[in-house]
């Protein structure tokens, strides 16, 4: 149960990503945002571990580097890159939905990759939660599955979900190789190098300190509240919770994002929003509680 609660907290923090990113994009490019997220998340975690006497987590161990590189590649590197690029080449609502289908993908792959059986109730919970996310993101309107001109963007957006699926499965599989604190801070270190290379390739300038205080504040929240803390939480949850219920719990993010828009942007509460939120909460409860009781 503790692992599921921790996953819910991580998903709730990730729910603030869209609205905060929207603010940051007024002054910064998507590639800059990804780089600064990794940089300041790494600095925050490093300072935290130094102050708390856990500086040993900051020293990469040679034998763990291939594992850390793989986790950083799928969880921070191409995941963030696919999100940024996908949104350029597809419509916002369809891209946002395709990026959140990993709670259905993890239950499909977990039995083969981890040997963790997925129950029928967990599949049901995943479908309900994804259906709720669909209603929240689409605002009750039909999202065409394929439209001419957006196929590339749709594939890239879906690849973001595949990438995060791989990350969750690998983090669960390798949980005994190192602590979740060690993997989180060193993943961020890998992310700095990866996104700096992306910035060099696309020739994106770095000019955070010449932007507005609002943009700086947004980047800092994305780094700490939407990167360092939620990755720590989800990595911790995968120590005790199976991959499937942990992934389904993360679908809290669209619900928190929806309420953020209500409170900050003044958007209207609709029936589709209420129904979508109910389906998400119901799906998480079915997968996390009912699914667990069926296995006990």
Q: What brief labels describe this structure?
A:
single chain; 296 residues; mainly alpha; globular
Gist of the model:
Helix 1 packs antiparallel against helix 10. The protein is built from 13 helices and no strands.
Order of H and E elements:
HHHHHHHHHHHHH
- Give the overall silhouette: globular
How many helices? The count is 13
Low-confidence stretches: none
Pairing-aware structural class of the strands and helices? mainly alpha
Oligomer: single chain
Number of domains as seen in the coordinates: 1
Describe this structure in words.
The protein is 76% helix and 0% strand. It is built from 13 helices and no strands. The protein is globular and about 50 Å long. The chain is mainly alpha-helical and 296 residues long.
Could you outline the blueprint of secondary structure elements for this entry?
Elements: H1 2-14, H2 17-24, H3 30-51, H4 65-89, H5 92-98, H6 102-113, H7 120-138, H8 151-173, H9 180-202, H10 213-240, H11 243-249, H12 252-265, H13 271-295
């Amino acid at each position: 149960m503790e692992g599921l609660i921790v996953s819910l907290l991580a998903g709730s923090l990730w729910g603030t990503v869209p609205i905060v990113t929207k603010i940051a994009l007024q002054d910064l490019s998507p590639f800059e945002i990804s780089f600064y997220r990794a940089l300041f998340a790494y600095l925050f975690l490093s300072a935290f571990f130094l102050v708390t006497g856990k500086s040993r987590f900051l020293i990469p161990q040679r034998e763990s580097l291939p594992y850390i590189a793989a986790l950083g590649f799928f969880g921070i590197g191409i995941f963030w890159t696919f999100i940024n690029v996908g949104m350029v080449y597809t419509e916002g609502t369809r891209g946002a939905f395709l990026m959140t289908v990993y709670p259905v993908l993890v239950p499909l792959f977990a039995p083969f990759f981890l040997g963790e059986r997925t129950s029928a109730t967990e599949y049901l919970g995943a479908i309900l939660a994804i259906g709720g996310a669909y209603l929240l993101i689409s605002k009750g309107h039909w999202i065409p599955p394929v439209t001419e001109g957006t196929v590339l963007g749709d594939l890239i957006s879906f690849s973001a979900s595949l990438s995060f699926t791989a990350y969750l499965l690998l983090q669960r599989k390798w949980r005994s190789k190192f602590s979740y604190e060690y993997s989180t801070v060193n993943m961020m270190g890998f992310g700095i190098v990866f996104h700096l290379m992306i910035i060099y390739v696309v020739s994106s300038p770095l000019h955070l300190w010449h932007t507005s205080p609002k943009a700086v504040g947004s980047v800092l929240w994305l780094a700490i509240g939407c990167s360092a803390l939620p990755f720590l939480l989800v990595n911790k949850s995968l120590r005790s919770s199976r991959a499937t219920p942990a992934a389904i719990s993360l679908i809290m993010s669209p619900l928190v994002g929806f309420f953020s828009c209500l409170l900050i942007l003044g958007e209207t509460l609709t029936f589709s929003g209420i129904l979508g939120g109910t389906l998400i909460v119901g799906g998480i409860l079915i997968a996390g509680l009912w699914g667990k009781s069926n296995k006990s």
